[in-house]
Amino acid sequence: MNSDGIKTFIMLSKLKNFTRTAERMYVAQSTVTNRIAELENETGQKLFVRRQGGVELTEEGQLFLSYALRINDLEESFIQEVNSAARYEKKLRVGAINAVYESCLYPLMSRFFKEHTDVSLKIVLGHSVDLLQMLQDSIIDVAFSYLPLKKTGFASRRFTSDKLVLLSAPECNAHRGGIRKSELMDSEYLMCNFAFGEAGEFVRSLFPPRHAFRFEIDNSGKVMQYLLDGLGYSFLPYKMAERKIVSGELQIIKPLDFTVPEIVSYCSYFKNNESAADFVEFLKEFTE
């Protein structure tokens, strides 16, 4: 399995079209076809099935995609690490969920970067499960997520806590006196499909299984603009939206017949990683 084949497979899984994949990768379409055929021969599985206008991943292809992404990430991480080692004495790779990064981690990262001029810094934003897997694969040194990593050799400590608040723009807030669960289900809810751990399960529990939301987005930081545009309601961490709440651009809606849980984020790292341990010590000065 060569890296060109892996990258071609990933690109085809996204674009679902051989011609567009060839154009995006600046190769002939026959090259894309041959690379996928080689992968299918090596894995012994059919990875794509032809559909009208393109291709779709088979069940085996879906499974292989998760491994292909990890292989690609590991290769790129290795190349960056080798190049970085030639220029900088130390390196630090930090992964964080968007909500934690925007609400409280950014100023700490900025300060760390200014004060530690001998350290090269790489920041990756992603979802909790993906970041914890990257940590275990040694692609990142520290992960900030809504899930703790309970595994031998790793440390996981509570980083921050926050309130989960239901928000809307004043002009579209039809529930100034509070909202009931039944009313929330009938509202224009903007679903942010991200994992808050227990809080994430809570948000999903407010709606029927397989509820069809008219709007969904997978990045918490991006749903706020839609709220500001007066397009509906959504739960967000208070610290992320604090400025807009204080300015009056967004309003908090009180739940009347349900209780909203606390959001807890965790800082996880490999115990024997010196760069991670130094960074965690730096954080303690500002978070304890």
How would you characterize this protein structure?
This protein is of the alpha/beta class and about 290 residues long. Helices cover about 50% and strands about 20% of the residues. Strands 3, 4, 5, 6, 9, 10 and 11 form a seven-stranded mixed beta sheet that branches. A two-stranded antiparallel sheet has the order 1-2.
Describe the structure concisely for a colleague.
By secondary structure, the chain is α/β, with parallel strands linked by helices. It is built from eleven helices and eleven strands. Strands 3, 4, 5, 6, 9, 10 and 11 form a seven-stranded mixed beta sheet that branches. It has a two-stranded antiparallel sheet with strand order 1-2.
- In N-to-C order, the SSE pattern is HHHEEHEHEHEEHEHEHEHEEH
Largest sheet: 7 strands, mixed
Number of β-strand runs: 11
Distance between the termini: 47 Å
Mean pLDDT: 88
Relative strand content? 15-25%
Quaternary assembly: single chain
- The number of helical elements comes to 11
User: Class by helix and strand content?
Assistant: alpha/beta
Which value, in Å, is the CA radius of gyration? 22 Å
Q: Which geometry do the CA atoms define?
A: globular
Low-pLDDT residue spans:
none
Give the helix level as a range of percent. Answer: 40-55%
